[in-house]
Write a structure and sequence with these properties.
alpha/beta, Glutaredoxin, Rossmann fold, Ubiquitin-like (UB roll), 4 domains, five-stranded mixed β-sheet, globular
């Protein structure tokens, strides 16, 4: 009887290693995580009907679970039944995370048995032009926040003549409430490697870098080991997958700067410089790393490519809505009952995500808002929870999807404090290159402090006018999205939660 237990960082943080020690005499395999984080540590057991689950477990629960397995497993108080029949998981549309919780992260046999390297084989067979066309036709857009069409980048880099080109993976996942990149790098590293190898042989790049944040030590170690395995088995090196083309790559570790999640600051950091945002043009596709053509994508974008090649562009386009095609791994965090990863096609609503999957607040108090898209994302009130999770639909309400992180708050959260935090965060993380971000964010903290300390309505009205003007200056005058988007959480908090600032609705909406 085989048992399966996640080796994911979050599972380990809540006791998975202790559970594994208690199971030392059993046939235990450490797998990736299903992403059902409120059930971790989650133990799965093979049965003729499929894997049944028990969770969340502690080491003290192990003896009773083992006893139950000898009789009536489903009678155990922590029994969950068939894991793949759990409503949270069954209703998902997992493309990127199809192997999550099933395969061992560093088992090449597991990866290949579940469709691994079929995309690379297809890319080698059809050649660079058709591969770039497939990415373009799929409608894949960058999953890092800007949602720029990936196929245009691929064609631009491929068409640019240079003696050397690069592939850069932005794995500096710094947004609050996001963990999909970490989950994938820890749990399915060969998928990212395959995506980067396909990109390399398609656009003519012979070398790649994965820029990982230093706070992800397990992801870094897993990727480095996976790179050695891939290299040994001919998926990297002088003859990638039998293509006759060379591509190799390495992991580089960041030093904790949030601004290095911006692609040009990341390139400066890779070059050994302080991470400072570059003015564009020139765009990185033409002059990127070391001044050479560079294809920059985040983890989820590159990891989407193998499936597109293996299944075809049309298969991918069949998911989603409008111009938002494919699936998105949404990440539920904050004050949420069922925190975890939900991969669904674009088009489900925020209400479905937060209430149906998330189960509402962990505190049991009423929902106040959800911040979508990281610390610079807008606060979306429940009145707008029926908005489809779609790039254009969210832009229409003054919000963004970003990297798919959703942080939930109940009615006890002070939105004035969160608006101040957004400005302070921008001030501390600014690279300092442009004046609106460098100076404006500091002034923003001061304006909010004056607004909250104002003794009368006239004083508050004056500060609201200044704050709104400042938000406009930051949004339209900043060099990058750090300063440009700090207005989102501030303006949305001011608009939807004026009472937290001591304002009447008419004052906030003026």
């Amino acid at each position: 009887m085989s048992l399966y237990l996640s080796c994911d960082s979050l599972a380990r943080a809540v006791g998975a290693d202790e559970v594994a020690l208690a199971l030392i005499s059993q046939d235990l395999q450490r797998t990736s995580s299903r992403g059902l984080y409120w059930l971790e540590p989650l133990l799965e057991v093979d049965t003729p009907q499929g894997r049944i689950g028990f969770g969340p477990l502690t080491a003290a629960d192990v003896p009773s679970v083992l006893d139950a397995l000898q009789g009536e497993p489903c009678a155990h108080p922590l029994a969950l039944g068939l894991v793949e029949e759990l409503p949270y998981l069954k209703s998902q549309q997992r493309l990127l995370f199809a192997r999550a919780g099933i395969t061992r992260p560093l088992s090449l046999d597991d990866y290949r048995a579940h469709g691994g390297f079929e995309g690379l084989n297809r890319a080698v067979t059809i050649g660079g032009d058709e591969t770039a066309t497939a990415v373009f036709d799929s409608g894949l857009r960058g999953r890092g926040g800007a949602a720029f069409p990936a196929g245009i980048k691929w064609r631009t880099v491929r068409a640019t003549q240079a003696a050397q080109k690069y592939i850069v993976c932005n794995a500096d996942e710094g947004d609050s409430g996001t963990f999909a990149d970490r989950m994938l790098m820890e749990g399915d590293p060969f998928l990212l490697i395959e995506g980067m190898a396909i990109a390399g042989i398609t656009v003519g790049a012979s070398y790649g870098y994965i820029y990982v944040r230093s706070e992800y030590p397990q992801a870094i170690a897993t990727l480095n080991e996976a790179l050695e395995i891939a290299r040994t088995n001919g998926y990297l090196g002088a003859n990638v997958g039998g293509s006759g083309l060379a591509f190799d790559m390495e992991v580089r570790v960041g030093a904790g700067a949030y601004i290095c999640g911006e692609e040009t600051a990341l390139l400066d950091s890779l070059e050994g410089k302080r991470g400072i945002v570059r003015a564009k043009p020139p765009i990185p596709a033409l002059q990127g790393l070391f001044g050479l053509p560079t294809l920059v994508h985040n983890v989820l974008t590159l990891a989407s490519v193998p499936l597109i090649l293996a299944k075809g562009a049309q298969f991918y386009r069949d998911y989603g809505m409008g111009r938002s095609l494919g699936t998105m791994p949404f990440q539920l965090a904050g004050n949420i009952r069922h925190g975890g990863l939900v991969e669904r096609a674009f088009g489900l609503t925020l209400r479905e995500l937060v209430e149906d999957y998330g189960g509402g607040t962990a505190s049991g108090r009423p929902l106040k808002a959800a911040q979508v898209g990281g610390p610079l994302g807008a606060w979306v009130p429940p009145s707008q929870f029926d908005t489809p999770l779609d790039y254009e639909a969210f832009a229409g309400i003054g919000a963004m999807l970003g990297h798919g992180g959703v942080v939930v708050a109940d009615d006890s959260l002070d939105m004035a404090h969160m608006a101040r935090f957004a400005m302070q965060f921008c001030a501390e993380e600014s690279c300092g290159k442009c004046t609106p971000c460098r100076i404006g964010s500091t002034r923003g903290v001061e304006v909010i402090d004056r607004l909250l300390a104002a003794p009368d309505q006239n004083g508050r009205d004056e500060q609201v006018i200044i704050l709104k003007d400042l938000c406009d200056t930051l949004q339209y005058g900043s060099l990058c999205a750090l300063g440009g988007m700090v207005s989102f959480p501030v303006a949305s908090a001011l608009k939807y939660f004026p009472a937290d600032f001591g304002l009447q609705s008419s004052e906030a909406d003026q």
